[in-house]
Amino acid sequence: MPSRQTTNETLSSTDRRVAALAPGPPVNIATGQAADPGAGEREVTFRLEGVSVRYGEALAVKDVTMDIHHKDITALIGPSGCGKSTLLRCLNRMNDLIPSARVSGRLWYHGEDVYGPKVDPVQVRKLIGMVFQKPNPFPKSIYDNVAFGPRTTGMKGDMDEIVERALRSAALWDEVKDRLKENAYGMSGGQQQRLCIARCIATEPDVILMDEPCSALDPISTARIEDLMHELKEQYTIVIVTHNMQQAARVSDRTAFFTAEVDEATDVRTGVLVEYDRTEKVFSNPGDERTENYVTGRFG
Length: 300
Ligand SMILES: Nc1ncnc2c1ncn2[C@@H]1O[C@H](COP(=O)(O)OP(=O)(O)O)[C@@H](O)[C@H]1O
Ligand SMILES: [Mg+2]
Prior knowledge:
Bound molecules: adenosine-5'-diphosphate, magnesium ion
Strand order of the largest sheet: 6-7-8-3-9-10
């Protein structure tokens, strides 16, 4: 295992190394076209080149090539089982925690190989935080939930200020400032999810990954989180998995549509990237018939 210090050095110098390390723009092997047309010189946060994921023998995601841009909200959409969560988990090495999962291909984060030998997955997950489908606060006070990350990573600074800043960024401060010592389980579902976002923000990540963050919430709480995402976008790069197409259309700048190809012989479903473009284009004028069928609610 590499030492923490080496890794911190490696990751904190990423910005300076972007120009040196980043390969040329990815090209879709099938079409010979750049996988992200029209992106120009915008800063790339993630570059995926032929990323595939297997669970044991089963190929769950095949050959994904795409760029994810700095301070964009990128939505991953597609039918259940097409590998959206699997692909999202590649971005911060959460698949490392699933023993049968194997990731292949190349994945660059600000020009740095996320799966490189010097990279510490714990550090990766601090920079690239994650919010899950079901709010999962710890059975602790509101304050301690937010302070948890900064305390474990030994963040410097006044803890009260760190906690307040994170709660303000998550649009939760006014609702909880008078009950910071109360248990987080006493909050509503929507508040718990914003608390989880605050907990993620508290460690000052660069990217927030969200896996269907609103699917357990009512419409009002959902609208709150969507508003919050618009605010967070000023500061963070966000990648969201959603099966709610209206949500993707409302919140995201770019949308990647995935589908599952079924192997007749083995019945294994393998996720492939069908189309990736500006959200407006994907929803109003998709380039692939499969995307059109999906976004218009027609399958087949
Ligand atoms: N931990 C796991 N072990 C084995 N197979 C898994 C695991 N997680 C997901 N899969 C399989 O990988 C495929 C993609 O799943 P997933 O990424 O959850 O899709 P989505 O998020 O698009 O619904 C599915 O066939 C699913 O059964
Ligand atoms: Mg999923």
